Amino acid sequence: MTTSSILVWDIHTRLFHWALVLAVTLSLTTGLIAEPDWMPIHFYSGYVVIGLLIFRLLTGIFGQDYGHFKHFHLSIKSVAAYWRSKQNFTGHNPPGSWMVVFMLVILSAQALSGLMTTDDIFYEGPWVYWVDDSWVSIASSIHAGNFRMILLLIAMHILAIAFYHFWRKKI
Question: In terms of Cα–Cα distance, which of 103, 111, 94 is closest to 151?
Answer without folding.
Answer: 103
